Amino acid sequence: MFWMLNTVWEVVALCLSVWIAVKHFRDMRRLLGPSTGSTIGDCFRVLMKSHVLYFASATAALIIAGTHVVLEVVQIFVLGPRLILSVREYHAKLVAGSDADTSMNSIVFQEHVQISTSGTV
């Protein structure tokens, strides 16, 4: 659902950008004459002047999204296995040093005592 809203927003922003560029070219042709120089350079200059905030926010969003993907991959393929390995290493050290004091209390079972109950058990 979110990707549809994002796509609609991008199409609207593209249409507005083209509209502003066409409006600028008409004004330039009316003021300066039919051919005055670099048309493509003029187009990029107009788009960057009028939409610099949009381009900056879109670039920041792409960087954040890319960073999120990289961090997610690191979490899945690096941090998860590292956590498992460190738990296994801790357990191995615990088992190897079980003769020494591990500062863990062990459960002491009482001697099996027969308790009689009433009747049916």
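(the above was protein one; protein two follows)
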Amino acid sequence: MNPIVIFIIIFLLECVSFFGYSKVASILSLFYCTIFQSELFNSIADSKKKVIYLKKKLNDISCQDEFAKWVKVNRKLTAATAEYEEQSSKGNSIQTSATIMINLVLKILFAVVRIALYIFLRKQPLFYATNEWLGQFTYLLTSKGAIHIFIWMLICSNISKRILNAIKTYRVELNK
């Protein structure tokens, strides 16, 4: 396998680790809910619009002058609010369970990817380093300058973390 491909894989794994599994899982669960639970979330949006409309209508009606009309709209508002809260709590529980499940799947998937790379590429060197790269340590650390998957993944992980920290530092400096 090409070392550049391994670097890209490790960089993606480190990006998710850097930003946090929970943030990535919440974003993915949002996509999941939008795609697979769209009817529920559309009905939640409709209920919210209905509640907002009824609140505006209730505010436009004078309680003292048109009491019967005000009571009728108030009852509709109470029913619509109860319906919205019920649907919203159901939507929140679906999104929370999806976030937890996706978080777990991400952690397992990334561990499996790392282990699979170690297992499948452990016996063959990825490439050979020359004496100029590592100097006198070339033959002490590896046999004949061979760089194996474990060392390469450590190097890629370190470089990825440094890149991500540099981006974070640069963003913080721009916001000042």
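Reviewer note on protein two: Residues 67-121 form the longest helix (55 residues).
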